[in-house]
Each structure stands twice: as C-alpha cells, then as structure tokens.
Amino acid sequence: MNVAVTTPLRAGAAESAAAEAAAARHGLVYVPRRNRAAAEVLADSGAGALLVLSPAAAVLVAGGLETRWSPGMGLLRARRLAKVRDGRRAGDASARDPFVEAAGLVPGDRVLDCTLGLGADALVAAEAVGPGGEVVGLERSPGLAAWVAEGLLRLPYPAARRVVVRAAEHGEALAQLPDRSFDVVVFDPMFRHARAAPGGFDAVRALADPSPLAPEALARARRVARRRVVVKDGAPGWDLARLGLVPLPSARGAHRYYACIDAA
C-alpha cells in the first residue's frame, strides 16, 4: 500500500517544511494539507494511506481510521528494564522481559530486528543494549517503516534514538551484510492466526508483508549473527514447528513463544 505524507490542519511553514523533509527522507510523496479534510488530501494523493506528521505525533489515516503511532507495551517494558538497570527493581520477577532473556541482550550489543512491525521489541532492545549499543530495524513496507521511524523520532524516550529504521526486505538485506556483523538477529514475523491485538495492529496488517519466515532467511541470519538468532511466534507456535524450531520454556498460558538458534 502506497503512503503519502501531509501535515495536520492549519500547519505553519516550519511544520510543513518538516513534513516535506520527512517525505523526502523516506521516499514518499508529500501532499500539502491546505486546510482540507484528511479524506480529501488522501484522495488527492492517489495513495492508499496518509501519514499525518506534527511535532508531537505520527498519525496514519487508512480505511477511514486515524491511528496514532505508539510502541504499545514496548514503552512500559523498556521503562521496567531501565528500573532494573538503576537497581530499583532488582530481583522483581515482574520486571523480567521474556524477549530480552531469550535474546540474551547485554549492554553494548548490536541487534538486527528483521521484522520491525510497530517497533515495540526494537525499543525494548534499545533500552537493554544501552547507550553503547545499537538496534537496526528492517521493515519491507516503506510506509510502515516511515510511520514507525517518525513515531520513534517523536517519542520522548532516550532509547528510541538508538533505533535505526531501514526500509528493506530482510532476506535481501541479510544477504548483503558481513559475517557476524550483529550480536543478535531477531525475527517476529506476522502472526497468521488472528487474535486480540493492541491498537495500531490493524494498520500494521494493512501495510506489512504477511509472507511467512523462510528457512533461507534463518540460514542467512545465522551467518550475520555473532551469538544467536531469535524467532518469536504466537501461541500455539505453529510457525516455529513449521521451521523445525523448539520453543524455549515459557510461563503457563504464555501468548508468545521464543526459539533460539546458535550463530553459524
């Protein structure tokens, strides 16, 4: 789905210039708002969705709905990790993050998130690796990549600045990366079995690539990773089974499963 960029109503010159620059940054079309309704701007653009950028928010307009970007529970999870680091919740079981534990993330790590989505896990990873680390998020959909990148830029949380978003298909990107160039490579492919989802996920389904994770991508990821490759799946873990992966032990009733593969 093509995405165009515009501003909120009655935007000033600086706000319009910033939105136009963002469109150029992501290779998207910029359409001036000119005090028109979002539906009119969308129709004028010829795109399937509209990204409305203000200094405080990145809002996606699609299918008659307006959805403000949010990392959802990712922000709460990141803040919990920060409290653990600061010693305020050491030993508190509620502060544990299954994703961080599965990935074995430590300060200074470089993490490659091959299926960025809304960026929740990327934000958590950025908090876990700290100022000395880096997280690169790949997203095949240019529109989704732009929405998340602009949302992260506007999120008043320091770790968000450590997430680098790239619009790229992960299989092609992995093929071009040097051996052992990232400590951990992560996959969280689109769950193909419908279940309750946080706000914004319907927009992700409309924009994202629903293709299942290919074994060839896992092989490439093992070459790129220094330590491990992590694959996430929704319960009951049918995609992990399809790939021949065994999920790590998890809490009873867990909705997310993780599998780890050692680097090649």
Describe this structure in words.
With 264 residues, the protein is an alpha/beta fold. It has two domains: 3-68, no CATH class; 73-262, Rossmann fold (3-Layer(aba) Sandwich), CATH 3.40.50.150. It has helices at 13-26, 38-45, 73-85, 98-103, 120-129, 142-154, 170-176, 201-207, 215-224, 238-242, and strands at residues 3-6, 29-30, 49-53, 58-62, 65-68, 110-113, 134-139, 163-167, 182-187, 225-234, 256-262. β7, α6 (142-154) and β8 (163-167) form a beta-alpha-beta unit. α3 packs parallel to α5 and α7 packs parallel to α9 (215-224). The radius of gyration is 19 Å and the shape is globular. The two termini are 36 Å apart. Residues 192-197 have low confidence and may be disordered.
- Overall number of domains: 2
Ends apart, CA distance between termini: 36 Å
CATH superfamily of the largest domain: Vaccinia Virus protein VP39
List low-confidence stretches: 192-197
Q: Give the total of beta strands.
A: 11
CATH architectural category of the largest domain: 3-Layer(aba) Sandwich
Gross morphology is: globular
Biggest sheet descriptor: 6 strands, mixed
Mean pLDDT rating:
91
Identify the CATH class of the largest domain: Alpha Beta
Helix coverage percent of residues?
Answer: 25-40%
How many helices? The count is 10
